[in-house]
Amino acid sequence: MTQQAEVKQDAPKLKKHTIWQNGHSPEPCAIVLFGATGDLAQRKILPTLAHLIHDHPQPETICIVAFARRPLGDDGWRKMVLESLDKYMPADDKLKAADKQAFAQRLFYCQSDFDDDAGYQRLGQLLDTLDKEQHTGGNRLFYLATPPDTDPEIIAHLGKAGLAKPRAQNGNDKKCWVHIITEKPFGHDLASAQSLNAEIGKVFHEDQIFRIDHYMGKETVQNIIAFRFANSIMEPLWNQKYIDHIQITVAESLGIESRAEYYEASGAIKDIVQNHVMQILSLVTMEPPADFSANDIRDEKVKVLRAISALTPEQVQERTVRGQYTAGEEDGKPVVGYKEEKGVNPKSTTETYVALKLFIENWRWADVPIYIRTGKHLPKRSTEVIIQFKRVPHQLYTTDQIGNMQPNQLVLRIQPDEGITLKIGAKVPGAANDLATIDLDASYRTVFGIELPEAYERLIADCILGDSTLFIRRDEIEESWRIIDSITNTWKQMDPDTVYPYATGTWGPKEADKLIRKDGRRQWVNP
């Protein structure tokens, strides 16, 4: 018998996605980047803008202005940006020399300290010049890629300099637009979030404010809405009658790297749960909105958060687990434990892992537990939502026939392989009536053959268009902090020994397994 050699075929080239669509195209604008020489701007924002402008040509001019302390000037700033593009843009997105130079001509620099009134006056003059010479149309997007404690100062100075107020267009009744993007964390507790909301509200109207959470730009997060409300077979099952529980896992394989100062103040619950997880949870469980307008969708998300009661101290002890990674191996290389990381207090009780159980107290989700876990130095990087349906009410097959078959599960994969999997039971071929679980799997890349937008690209494009659907409203932030504060305030009073160790490369402390198992036959579903 001759065995034929397998011929490997190159994967088909993915088609480019579209950003400016559905009759919407961007107006000209100037994007002012505060903290432009910082890590976030260099690693993420500038490569994203270069890709957005190059791969999705727009008929109108977009210029990028850096507002930063270093004495660079236009030429020094352009050189820095081009070096960042070479370093941080993915290999398949690298720009040719001519394209990089074309992008560089859109870059301008304004040197100033954040507390210098004169610097904001110079910024205003530069923006007026760009309106005349580059035809940016008087539209402004201020992007605060800065440490959160500098935000109130920058916002106050923008207001004082008159840069926050939209102006009338020349020869037109229509006003120019002014938008502002703020990065997470938005406050460090409810009181600070309310204070920051009040400060920014003195200068900018709510419809000008775009609080960014990059998870909301991921394709699967947006597809949660389409999956639920564009398929008639899903909505009748999306309730406590058919769903046993929901799991949300945000797993990170890396440790804290060089972020010790930030992480010591935040921990896993503030870094991931307060923002990313709460946004995913609200989209998965919200009621159908009246339409797909930004405010109607966000209204329904807020209702979910309001239906989650603050936890009592007794509930915190029963429904939450904290963990902290210890030394181990990552990719075959030894890594230190959290307390040995540079910049970390050797007696730190900051959690690098958290598991918790929440309930949404409304008719749709009564008595359906929501299990959440996130952690550093877990076995793999993955974000998934597991919708586990109830077992069949009367099992006709014997235990031997069922074997290890699991209840039906719907898996929403948010990263890294975005897609949807439905796990169902099926008969194994043969004379016996043996059952097994099979996967009905759809990967977005494979099904559609389209490259997926990078999250920041989609969100920045939406901000330019003025679409706030994927951004977080003031009341969402405050309701989320209300829930988180009820947990962290109790943690402060608990014994440090309740921060349980777990080895690097494992799925967290054993206490997290006990949390879910004590409710019956439930267990964590590992990606």
CATH class of the largest domain: Alpha Beta
**Poorly predicted ranges (pLDDT <50, ≥5 residues)?**
1-9
Strand residues, percent: 15-25%
Helix content class: 25-40%
What is the overall shape?
globular
C-alpha termini separation: 40 Å
Q: Tell me the domain tally.
A: 2
CATH topology of the largest domain, anyone? Dihydrodipicolinate Reductase, domain 2
Lateral strand order in the biggest sheet: 16-15-14-13-7-12-11-8-17
Give the tally of β-strands.
17
Rg calculated over all Cα atoms: 25 Å
Please state the second-level CATH architecture of the largest domain. 2-Layer Sandwich
Number of helices: 15
Largest sheet features: 9 strands, mixed
* Derived structural class: alpha/beta
CATH superfamily of the largest domain, by name, is: Dihydrodipicolinate Reductase, domain 2
Query: What is the average of the pLDDT values?
Result: 88
Catalytic activity: D-glucose 6-phosphate + NADP(+) = 6-phospho-D-glucono-1,5-lactone + NADPH + H(+)
Function: Catalyzes the oxidation of glucose 6-phosphate to 6-phosphogluconolactone.
Pathway: Carbohydrate degradation; pentose phosphate pathway; D-ribulose 5-phosphate from D-glucose 6-phosphate (oxidative stage): step 1/3
Family: Belongs to the glucose-6-phosphate dehydrogenase family.
